[in-house]
Design goal:
471 residues; mainly beta; 16-stranded antiparallel beta barrel; two-stranded antiparallel sheet
Amino acid sequence: MDASAEDRTKAAPATVTKAASQPSTCGSAEDFVVTNCMLTWSGITVYGTIDMGLTWRSHAAPFNGTSAVGEDYLIQKYSNRPLWGAAPNGLTQSNIGIKGNEPFAPGWAFVFDLQAGFDPYSLQLANGPHSVAQNAGVPLTSQNSYADSSRAGQFYNSVGYLGVSSPYGSLTVFRQNSLTLDAVFAYDPMAASYAFSPIGFQGIACGAGNTEDCRFSTSVKYHADIGQFRIAALWQFGGYSLNNAATGSYQLQLGGDIPNLAGGTLSLDAIGSYVRDAVSIGLAGSAPPAVLPQILTATLSDNTSVMLVSKYSNGPVKLFAGYEYIRYAPPSHPFAAGNGFTDIAGDFVCAACAAFNSTNISSTSFNAGDKLFHVFWTGAKYSVTDNLDVIGAYYHYDQPTFGPHASCSALPTPAACHGTFDAVSFAIDWRFAKKFDAYAGLMYSQITGGLANGYLNRSTVAPTAGFRFRF
């Protein structure tokens, strides 16, 4: 999911930010707590976020301190019984980072950003693939809240890039957000919150179909603003051996802003993506009986997506809408028996393994027919005051029937049959001090048809409240 100083790391700025617009440097411990000062020395800033809270879910599994999300705020296969739980990272991924912006000529600067996301309760670096591996060999009814992710325990599991910012745009290299992840942060009314946004919790949208591809460890990214228009491109070079969850990826973004439209501004962006040999880590064996152990699987596919997003801002009101079309096709490089690769968590993925703690590669999931997937969302944010926001959102997934399948009238519905997912959420965010805010809200999610294959339950409601400290 999943859905990184905030997890909302954006591309390096297209132009050098003027020093006068930055918060002042902290001069004392009191300044650090009660003002919006920054821990900055000679153009280098240390920053971070701590997000903690409490949640209750009507169908849930126990807390997992390794997973980025920590709790199953969203209905999952293993969501089982009512549970209270600690709510890490409900609004924002907790993180610690260091970044720099060092001018070297008028309008030009060297930039870098290194950031790691962690769980504020366990203090472990977020590691989605390992949270899945922890549940290998465990029956569905006894699993905890695991979730695959692009964060895989690296010290740079959010971002780790450097580059140059200039009047002609920014050019950065190494670990960076995908363009689709940047768009989800900018155009999701819940800003990719784990507790209130499915496209933040999961990562289907930001990873062009697979959450592990929401970030690329070896990539080149370019972004430029040209008047009211913007353009961006990303190329992932290198493959699995360089800590990527694909063997190659390409993205192109075109967008712009239309000002003075009925008194507000309309922002529009379109992003095309192609991801080759994308990896999704999961567990198999979810068909009844659910008391049997499950095994790790790695599903490979070539993914193509088109994302269209929009936002209208007019004073205290912001309206959001987004849509993504995703196609899953057979991978370009299927693995033969005996061959494998090392995944982004550093674990070896083999083609055919017998042990529960080994990962079996599936390269044939879409051989009989490509899988199509549609993601839609909309919502609104209203700023009651400068420090109080009220937010509401709706999310919908649709999977048409694909490939060979048994009768879709059978129960349980086969996984290749038509299925839908829906979620509605509501949240209030109160920034009661310069670096502190408190929030509360709930998300209701339900799943049907082929998408619900192997699920213990079909819906859950998850009220969550917490606070966040950002420095």
